[in-house]
Design goal:
Largest sheet: 7 strands, mixed
Bound molecules: pyridoxal-5'-phosphate
Structural class: alpha/beta
Number of strands: 15
Radius of gyration: 27 Å
């Protein structure tokens, strides 16, 4: 057998990045943890060295002390024992969900920071880590191609959230605020701003125009005498959607309707949650058809045409950079083009990128100086990545309004680290909780100052400063360009390309037993595999077969982990999402009967295996092992065993 993985270059720069599948870097982590724990203790002792120790040394022998200690140790041992049932994310045998080993700098920074317990709600509770969080926003902005110089007025801003879901909610909140603000200015009859004559027009201004208006309004306000200033501020405040609520706002503006949000059918369920949370209602989430699980620009155009015809406002269009189930990347460039055309016809909306999964892939496209790499620059590094389409999507990120990125996914950081980034921070004034602060003219260079009261702008209140420190330190150790952080996605995209080659070889080798296909050529590092036993034409039977295979690949909390050789996940292809053309193409390739789809609840969709390839050690150069090849050998063994069981049952 030939070993395609032998050609994979070994990147030694990655050797010290993680604790490692075997805990190879244990001494390094131990040394750092001990050093920084001691450091923390010295800090306590040196705060006011004149204060004597409050806990007597002799108390360590007291029965109550000892009783507490033993209870604590007992419970900790139980916890530690129970945690051995955890999912082995660190292992290259794990290819299930969007998680892998943790980057050492982030893990160490998080653990180092925990005993200081900073609360990033404001600088008063986090004098150090709040600035780090704002810096994280700038680091991510640079990775995406947003302006990131805080000395300039139009600089991006970003903050850490508990996860991608909350970052998506924040994007909805900001888009609604921007859209509705000019309508409030009109309602308050603020003079001298050159406001549009109609609510519809005011509700459809480009974000850049709204930000200009906001700045003009603030400048105008600053010129008013004190009592007048307060009165005008109140007038505008009273007309804002945030003050009135959706019901009263739309009652007062009868020519407007609750706006819709457009997202591809592949959208993560956080979008449905977000619509409910904002009170926009799920009905207002319009799912746009895809072509090969990537938003179809023609379908988007039809929806936009319909909205223009019906005078239906659109709040935002979501582009997904790496869909959760299939890893597919939407044509961000085409979505921006569609917006330009729509804008010319009077319908405007914001473009948000849900890059919770794929955000860090942008590091592959960034040079050290922050400029964008051309596709030609990247050839030779991969087999096919990035396709023209994928490159165009990443190149277009710079022109979008807001983005969600999850450091706790492809950033290899502990949970509790999502991120929201907006291209022009001045819009954030509209989200500020305290109005007097909103309309306070900012002095130049006060960017950091302003965001030290983070709690004013974010959906959360108290939040972990340790999580922000972890992201910040990681980005400092591994800057977000192709020569540093980019080496990680580089290794995993190559692994995914290898996985694809292995899947195709597997399809040939197992063809006596199975029809195997990769339903969508992967855009990055998530690969799905569809299969059907040879001779079968019924979807229900194929699904039962995939379920049976997945039984051996899934976490079963009641059984020892070690019984499992590999971990993968399962997802479904729904005809409603695929569209008739794609459904027919895939079922055809699997020799499945189209009529056997959807007449029953166990066959209303096609089950497929899904593999997230983000473990950095899928190819073990030290021992010349490819866990990807081993996985397919394992699948092959399972398939042959199931076939022989079937034969035995039949005879
Ligand atoms: C994971 C994911 C989310 C949600 O992120 P959480 O961190 O789980 O809240 C949103 N969108 C996409 C595309 C995702 O992959």
């Amino acid at each position: 057998m030939n070993h395609p993985h032998i050609n994979e270059p070994h990147d030694h720069a990655l050797d010290a990045c993680f604790l490692g599948p075997y805990g190879e870097n244990d001494a390094l982590l131990e040394k750092m943890m001990l050093e920084f724990l001691r450091d923390h203790v010295y800090w306590r002792r040196n705060f006011h060295p004149e204060d004597p120790p409050a806990i007597a040394t002799a108390t360590a022998q007291h029965p109550d002390y000892l009783a507490f200690e033993s209870r604590m140790r007992r419970e900790l041992h139980q916890l530690s024992a129970a945690l051995k049932k955890s999912v082995p994310f660190h292992s290259p045998r794990y290819m299930g969900h969007m998680v892998s080993d943790l980057l050492l700098p982030g893990l160490a920074a998080q653990m180092l920071t925990l005993p200081y317990n900073p609360n990033n709600v404001s600088e008063e509770a986090a004098p150090v880590t709040v600035d780090m969080e704002v810096q994280v926003g700038l680091q991510l902005a640079r990775m995406l191609g947003y302006p990131h110089d805080p000395e300039k007025p139009a600089c991006a801003f970003g903050h850490v959230t508990s996860g991608g879901s909350l970052a998506n909610f924040q994007a909805l909140r900001l888009a609604l605020s921007l859209k509705a603000f000019p309508v409030a200015l009109r309602a308050a009859q603020v003079p001298e701003l050159g406001l549009p004559d109609e609510d519809w027009e005011a509700f459809n201004l480009p974000a850049s125009r709204v930000i200009d208006l906001l700045e003009q309004w603030q400048a105008w306000l600053a010129l008013q005498p004190g009592h007048e200033r307060h009165r005008w501020q109140q007038r505008v405040q009273d007309a804002r959607i945030e003050q009135l609520g959706l019901a009263a706002f739309f009652e007062e503006h009868p020519t407007l309707r609750v706006p819709v949000v457009l997202a591809p059918v592949t959208a993560h369920y956080s979008w449905s949650k977000g619509m409910k949370m904002l009170g926009l209602g799920r009905r207002q989430l319009r799912l746009v058809a895809t072509d090969g699980m990537r938003m179809d620009p023609k379908a988007l155009q039809l929806v936009l045409d319909e909205c223009i015809r019906a005078r239906q406002p659109v709040l935002m269009c979501v582009a997904i950079l790496g869909s959760t189930e299939y890893g597919t990347i939407d044509p961000v460039d085409a979505i921006l083009d569609a917006r330009l055309q729509s804008r010319a016809r009077g319908l405007d909306f914001s473009v948000h990128v849900d890059a919770a999964w794929g955000g860090y892939l942008a590091t592959l496209f960034r040079r050290e100086d922050g400029s964008l790499r051309s596709r030609k620059d990247m050839t030779g590094e991969f087999r096919t990545f990035p396709t023209q389409r994928v490159h165009a999507a990443f190149a277009a990120l710079a022109d979008t309004d807001t983005t969600t990125v999850d450091p706790h996914k492809l950033g290899y950081l502990p949970y509790g680290a999502g991120a929201f980034v907006c291209r022009d921070h001045r819009a954030m004034a509209l989200l500020a909780e305290r109005a007097d602060y909103v309309f306070h003219r900012t002095t130049p260079g006060s960017y950091l100052q302003r965001y030290r009261n983070l709690g004013q702008f974010i959906p959360e209140g108290s939040k972990s400063g340790a999580a922000a420190a972890a992201v910040y330190v990681t980005h400092k150790v591994l800057p977000l360009d192709h020569l540093h952080f980019g080496r990680l996605p580089h290794a995993t995209v190559r692994a995914a390309e290898l996985f694809l080659a292995c899947a195709r070889r597997f399809a040939r080798e197992i063809s006596e037993h199975l029809h195997v296909m990769v339903p969508f050529t992967p855009d990055s590092n998530l690969v799905c595999v569809a299969l059907n036993p040879r001779g079968n034409t019924r979807v229900a039977v194929a699904n039962a077969y995939v379920r049976e295979l997945h039984e051996n690949l899934r976490i079963d909390p009641t059984r020892p982990l070690q019984l499992k050789e590999f971990f993968g996940s399962m997802t479904s292809l729904q005809p409603g999402m695929l569209g008739p053309h794609e459904t027919a193409r895939i079922l055809d390739a699997l020799h499945l009967d189209l009529d056997s789809l959807g007449d029953h609840e166990d066959n209303d969709c096609l089950l497929i295996l899904r593999h997230t390839l983000m473990n950095p050690y899928l190819i073990d150069h030290e021992n010349d092992i490819s866990y990807i090849e081993r996985y397919f050998e394992f699948l092959g063994r399972r398939v042959r065993m199931l076939a022989s069981l079937e034969m035995a049952a039949a005879s």
